[in-house]
UniProtKB/TrEMBL annotation:
Subcellular location: Cell inner membrane
GO MF entries: amino acid transmembrane transporter activity; symporter activity
Lineage of producing organism: Bacteria, Pseudomonadati, Pseudomonadota, Gammaproteobacteria, Pseudomonadales
Annotated keywords: Amino-acid transport, Cell inner membrane, Cell membrane, Membrane, Symport, Transmembrane, Transmembrane helix, Transport
Membrane topology: Multi-pass membrane protein
GO (cellular component) term, any one: plasma membrane
Name of the protein in its database record: HAAAP family serine/threonine permease
Catalyses which reaction(s): L-serine(in) + H(+)(in) = L-serine(out) + H(+)(out)
Pfam families in alphabetical order: Trp_Tyr_perm
InterPro entries: Amino_acid_transport_2, Hydroxy_aa_transpt
Transmembrane segments: 29-47, 53-75, 96-122, 142-160, 172-191, 211-233, 254-273, 301-322, 343-360, 366-385, 406-424
Length: 425
């Protein structure tokens, strides 16, 4: 017991008695979290969230911050509850045993990796379309274009986790400016749009049904669970005993930035387009940017839309790569093989490059279904696993009895049941 206490004392020996002031690294992580969450899904959010009508959208807007902040804070605390340097796969094994650890690691990988494949396809499609329609040049063969794009992103990955986070935080700036520009640009074109449904107060049963099916859209549009493990490990390394407090501050600011920016963009879009136009965009399987470019026949939007989409997809790819590689490395280690860290990094990068390149080249339509199937797993890991750990794991006992735990559990169950229901023919 004394040895354990001494090791704890040594672990935090360099940790200040009080938190230091907000640093540039904290800002970098805040923007990195924002960058992972706010990606290509944001460009479809106005369509999916706006179709339910005014009142469901208003309720979802009010729930957006607590839904996302409390869930990601819970997952961060779960990773922080493990030993120093332990990522999410190690912490699961530490708390729940080897078999449960292997199962969760497997599910974690297969929840995130398909999304990485989807981003690979989307990135290739976006650049190919941009070259053909905006630059008016013939794009190279799809296999070559996909290989160059994915290799370019993996070159950033090879520079290390800190470089990835910094690259994502830098890419966030033009994305925020672009979203803000588009939202402001649409203000003169506001026609009331979704406000036409404000006088139609839905029946309680219809309202609950709409919210039930819409909550997963909101949850997964703000999801940045793939980078949470790396975030928590870095916070514990930097702040030791104060990691929970500082990580909560970073998360709250990141989520506030997400919610304010994205909801302003969403409301600007749905005040511009009628519910019928939103339904048309959904039927055409277009992002809101593509539909707006066609709707206004505006060359500026037509040229800017694919550039914004490229930035959104690229930064989300980098964020999801961290989580997917972490899961793959965890699976390799749990087989009993322990290659050198550099060898494992290279093998992981090679595997990711080959698989992402093949899928991006083939451009299969099955990816949408794979993403939907990963939804319940993401919700289970993000919402339910940390709440279960709070009840069962002694290291997390101090978080018991908080009202936010009940809220997170309820939202997680709603998200899982709604996604499963949406998959039933």
């Amino acid at each position: 017991m004394n040895d354990q206490a001494n090791s704890v004392d040594e672990r935090y020996a360099t940790t200040p008695a009080t938190l230091t002031s907000w640093s540039r690294q904290d800002t970098t992580w805040m923007l990195g979290l924002f960058g992972t969450a706010i990606g290509a899904g944001t460009l479809f959010l106005p369509i999916n969230a706006g179709l339910g009508g005014f009142w469901p959208l208003l309720i979802l807007a009010l729930l957006a911050f607590p839904m996302t902040f409390f869930a990601h804070r819970g997952l961060t605390r779960f990773v922080l509850s493990g030993r120093e340097g332990s990522d999410i796969t190690d912490v699961v094994e530490e708390h729940f045993g080897i078999k449960a650890g292997a199962l969760i690691t497997l599910l974690y990988f297969f929840a995130i990796f398909p999304i990485l494949l989807i981003y690979s396809v989307a990135l290739t499609n976006t650049v190919s379309s941009f070259m053909e329609h905006q630059l008016h040049i013939l794009p190279p063969p799809r296999a070559i274009l996909a290989f160059v794009l994915i290799l370019g992103l993996l070159a950033v990955v090879r520079c290390g986790e800190q470089v990835i986070v910094k690259a994502m935080s830098l890419m966030v700036y033009p994305f925020i400016v672009a979203l803000l520009f588009l939202a402001v640009y649409l203000i003169p074109h506001w026609t009331g749009g979704i406000l036409s449904t404000a006088s139609e107060v839905p029946a309680p049963s219809a309202l609950l049904s709409t919210l039930w099916l819409a909550i997963p859209v909101m949850v997964f549009s703000f999801n940045h669970s793939p980078i949470i493990s790396a975030f928590a490990v870095d916070q514990k390394r930097q702040y030791g005993a104060h990691a929970d407090e500082r990580s909560s501050q970073i998360l709250s600011r990141a989520h506030l930035l997400m919610v304010v920016m994205v909801l302003f963009f969403v409301f600007s879009c749905v005040l511009t387009l009628s519910p019928a136009q939103l339904a048309e965009a959904k039927a055409q399987n277009l992002s809101i940017l593509s539909y707006l470019a066609n709707h206004f026949d505006n060359p500026t939007i037509a040229f800017a839309a694919p550039l914004i989409a490229f930035v959104a997809i690229a930064k989300s790819f980098l964020g999801h790569y961290i989580g997917a590689s972490e899961g793959l490395k965890g699976l390799v280690v749990k087989t009993g093989r322990r290659p050198a860290p550099k060898t494992l990094d290279r093998l992981t990068a090679a595997f990711m490059l080959v698989v992402c390149w093949i899928v991006a080249t083939l451009n299969p339509s099955i990816l949408g279904m794979i993403e939907a199937l990963g939804g319940p797993v993401i919700a289970s890991i993000l919402f339910l696993m940390p709440m279960y750990a709070i009840r069962k794991v002694p290291a997390m006992a101090k978080y018991r009895g908080q009202a936010s735990n009940v809220f997170v559990t309820a939202v997680g169950l709603v998200a899982i049941t709604a996604v499963v229901y949406s998959l039933i023919p």
